[in-house]
Amino acid sequence: MNEQTENSDDNRRAPPDQLLLDLADYLCNYSGASTEAIETARYALFDALGCGILALQTAECRKRLGPVVPGATLSDGVPIPGTKYQLDPVHAAFNIGTLVRWLDYNDTWLAAEWGHPSDNLGAILACADYRNRHLAYSLPLLTMCDVIDTMIQAYEIQGILALENSFNRLGIDHVILIKIASTAVATKLLGGNREMIINALSNAWIDGGTLRSYRHAPNTGWRKSWAAGDATSRAVRHALMAINGEMGYPNTLTTPQWGFHDVCFNGQPLSVNKEYGCYVMENILFKVTYPVEFHAQTAVECAVQLHHKIDTQLEHIKQIELHTQDAAMRIINKSGPLHNHADRDHSLQYAVAIALLFGTLESHHYSDEVAADPRIDALRDKMQAVEDKTFSQDYLDPANRAIANRVVIHFENDSIEEACIEYPVGHRRRRSDAYPLLELKFRNNLAPHYPAAQAETLATLMLDQQQLLAMPAHHFMERWIKEGTTDA
């Protein structure tokens, strides 16, 4: 029997799945965003690229950059920020996405599914730059205003799909939503029409879900730092193929037995009960001060508050209680050995121990050298993580969206020190606190890599929204080429 008609007596195709239509219509009918969303997107753009520049200090990150075949070049290709590389848009997306995501320091979205919407910048910046350099004969030049609008749309697609659909509970990695959002906006950026967007999206959904095994003990490893770059790279490929006439598969979500719902989602339809607009960008979470998985952000803030109260009493600590949300219990609650940087920055206990010991948490604290400090595991052994049901409820409440943690330290003399924080400094409710710190974070991230004058020029551009929005996208990308060197 022909596989196409197996278990079916009707080979007629139905109209495209409603989700595909809704996403395409959102992009094609997009009419702009709020002032708040535009301002937030500007900070998100520079914060993400600043994180990418800081990642260049990491040898493991640099090993994964460049063309897929050493020495391969593209004349007038997409420049990769902070490096000498100029690449085709598919591999540029991988490089940019990997840079942004490497340190787990870029912005975050927490809902039924979590993720990092600025990961989509791999596809967005690669396609915007490529279009301006190579497609200007047929398409209008894109400005950074277009890039900001595209960011808002990509964030919205990823974030709205994440609100009620928990892929991680089924073992599917959240980068599936990066691929979907990036495929949609990349197709539009490259000149695709509504039908092409639908076709590209259908192929992205057909890819199905990547396993999460590399994010969890005992398999935690470097892939979690390049998986988003891989997803954006795949998205750009889908976009280019759709624009070149690649066919779509209109019922890839809903086809019985063979569709995404039945194969990957336990037979349940994806749930979308909020209209697409700019809600996600307005409510995005910034990692302002500490490079750690976001469910631990307020726990680290608590531990930093407690540092000076307990630094002379470390040997007298009897027990440490970590009251947290269900999501943190599932993904960053770890005991036993932690094998590498990627393992440690996804450990609630390790992050809290570092903050208690040093009064801060920085990327170098995940190194093997720091992890060898015996005091860290001594503190971890005294920790017990427990779910606070109220914290879990407030986390999922759309009107609240708290990410609360409480750290309670019990001493041998039965005294107690504790701290509780509901909203991290990067939360929408603390935006006014966050923006000056994001500027400082950006400057600090650039300082080790760029000449002082170039770093200052980029910092000035970060704060000048009018100048930024008017700038052609490829000119913006050129600003990130390191001056005075050919080193990667």
Beta-strand content estimate: 5-15%
Mean model confidence by pLDDT: 93
CATH topology of the largest domain: 2-methylcitrate dehydratase PrpD
The CATH architecture of the largest domain: Orthogonal Bundle
Overall SS class: alpha+beta
- The tally of beta strands, per DSSP, is 6
Q: Give the helices and strands as they follow along the chain.
A: HHHEEHHHHHHHHHEHHHHHEHEEHHHH
CATH level-1 class of the largest domain:
Mainly Alpha
Number of helices: 22
Can you identify the CATH superfamily of the largest domain? Answer: 2-methylcitrate dehydratase PrpD
Share of helix, binned: 40-55%
Quick description:
By secondary structure, this protein is α+β, with helices and mostly antiparallel strands. The protein has two domains: 13-282, 2-methylcitrate dehydratase PrpD, CATH 1.10.4100.10; 294-424, 2-methylcitrate dehydratase PrpD (60s Ribosomal Protein L30, Chain: A, 2-Layer Sandwich).
